[in-house]
Task: structure prediction
Amino acid sequence: MRFRANLVIGGALFATVVIAGLLAPWLAHTDPVLDADLMYAEEPPGSAYWFGTDAQGRDIYSRVLYGARISLTVGIVSQLINTVIGVCLGLSAGYWGGWWDDVVNGLTNLMLAIPSLVFALAIMAILSPGLTSLLIALGLTNWSFTCRLARAATLSLKSQGYVQAAKVLGYGDLRIMATQLLPNMLGPIIVIGTLGMGSAILAEAALSFLGLGIRPPFPSWGSMLSDARDQITTAPWISIFPGLAIFATVLGLNLLGDGLRDILDPQARSRRA
Amino acid sequence: MLSFLVRRVLQTIPIVLAVAFLIFVLFSVIPGTFASSLSDDGRSIMDPAVVERMTKELGLNDPVAVRFGRYVLQLAQLDLGTSFRTRQPVTQVLAERTGPTLQLCFAAMAFAIIIGVPLGFIAALKPGGMVDTISMVTAVSGLSVPKFWLGLILMYLFALKLGWLPSFGYGGDPRYLVLPAVALGVAPLALLARTTRAAVLEIMNADFVRTARSKGMSEGRVVRWHLARNALVIVLTTVGLQFGSVIGQAVVVEKLFSWPGLGSLLVDSVTLRDIPVVQGAILLIVLFFLFTNTIVDVLCALIDPRIKYS
Amino acid sequence: MSSAPLLEVENLRIDLAVGGNRFAAVENVSFSIGRGETYGLVGESGCGKSITALGLIGLLRPPLSFGGGTIRFDGREIQNLPPAAMRAMRGKRIAMIFQEPMTALNPVSPVGRQIAEMFVLHEGVSWREAERRAVEALASVRVPAPERRVKDYPHQLSGGMRQRVMIAIALACNPDLLLADEPTTALDVTVQAEILDLIRDLSAAKGTAVLMISHDLGLIANMCRRVGVMYAGRIVEERVAEEVFRAPSHPYTSGLVASLPLLGARSRQGRHRLKEISGVVPPVTAFPEGCRFNPRCQRATDICRVNDPAITPLRNGGVRCHHHE
Result:
């Protein structure tokens, strides 16, 4: 029963990260930004500093905990934006067709032609680095798959009997889209959303690592790794824990997404990729 | 076949134009980006008169349509402008950096294909078995690991601790290529393994494979004469998509390993606000991606004749 | 015609693994086919006729597996043959055609090559020679302009054409036995007749025995000399074709015959509805106790609910019923 294992392990991993983030103020030992004691810079992991300290003398353990908040916020919010954009565009394109469909298709093809990290980079280049800019940038990069999915689902559901019936009953277009079509495509959308959260977290980490996302001194896991590179010979532990946190979170989301896919989208099971 | 090729190429042209327009809008139209970058490179504050003159020279005050027209004209003449930072023509800057990026991307994809596809295939032959479970768990991990973190760990292990490979830099020596290619290639490897496995599993149970077996064909022949081509189309399509992802993700890996390619150029230019280079680099990256996609589509059409007619 | 039967099946059992358990999807199936004879296996969907054919040619894959019994082909027991030996028989001595010609052919290979494969595999000829013979094979299944058709891909052909290609493939090496699993079910009615004629003519010309599987009683009666009626994994009646129609013995067979829409029957017999057999075919995992047909049977009595009937031999066949006619 491998797919059940996916759900359980993935869910557990993700839940752990969420709890760590939520309870960070109580679980952390120090303030992640302000408490910096240069006397104890680059301390290896020990009883005082569970994960060691970084070059500024900050406790890595506390920073990792608070970093969870940033990563989760980015993951959830940006994916939410992506999903909303994708569903709105895809549903409407499939439903109304015509020139609007052509426009949406063109936009989707355009988005698919640009590698997502490059696009996010470009947007971050215009906006100044920070959380809000990051949410906007990531929220605009990943909607293409959801859009395609919503459009395809709409096209196939549109001709179903109950949709025709709703039309005859005088339901408005928006009402039909919201009540008849949308609920029937939720399954695959949830799956893509879960997996997309993982991508968003990886993307945020990458951008922060490059210095274009969350800037230091805020404890983004990505920017922590960027600092770590210079210290790799002297203090390798700085590199390990933030990356491990990213890995665990994204792994949890990927497993969860796979598990959900097996339940919600059984057709895709055999074509799992 | 030829008409298919022509059709595909023609389909890409509007996309290229649209991307060019998008880049133009993002960087040249949105107020402040161009002009402020001229004067705001962080090193010195330029004389406002000089800024004024440059603005007039570059025609930054003309209406948008005119500026876009000029931009497209320049593109057609392969003129991408001049770098703010180095005053070199952008085309020259890009040309220097293209080679290393291509090397890295091809090496990463080669690594991913050579290991990922056979792995997925073997996993599919005994679904639920040891090889299958282990490879799929490894695959999902490979998809979840941040590339730059993996790069850091590889760097630490193989370069610093074991001293087998150089930790960063670029040189004629292929050993420099190993760590970056592996770091970049792990994710496509994982995805290819999963996709190949799914494709093989689906085809193994397909009707025409049953027919092939009923002809008295050995499993080996079934794989070679029937399964391979059908699975190849799916795998090839994934390879094409992954190439695009690799080109994009190369940005991070290049920066980590100080690899002098388009990716690190892009990041540096963004940081230094060297807009013409940013525009040019993005355009070039997209062009590469579209080009590889077209090649993949043509290859797929060669293998599966049904595609030509769609 | 030699009198020893070509195929003798005794107490064939095929298992289906569901969850952690094994259920007998096909059980106690025995029949025989003579050389050059066309034998029919008829029954509703899910009764196990296709599985039986797959078992005969050794193409059972998990969750199906061989569960016991004897299959004797040309005097030789083949149910436990090592895979390589069984493989040598497939295509060469026993061949099979399937229901869905579209999905049964390799979509990325020209049909000529798929026929030629047979010659290269079994007769060791060169590809060139094989492709030449493929053209002849296409001509023998009455495909017009075979030298051009040979280069076509399956999606370029109509359903009837594809089925002809399947037949050409199956009969390419002159097998002794052809298993035809619902070969016309997916085709248009007009094309069905042509394909059946083709099968009949070719098998007569080459002396090929045919196991014709269908749910269409009329088709079976037309094509076959003897008929086996299957229900829930068992053969419940085996008769000569005319007698199945004229005087069905098992209540299930009677029901099948009665449900055939005959022109004028309703006006003659004063009926307004088509006669059906009430109930549904039981799933493999939940066969009824006693006689498997008893929940749907009008003649069922207490003994039927408890005792699974054995085969009562009749003239020209047998029946499995406590209350047979």
Observations:
- Chain B is about 80% helix and 0% strand.
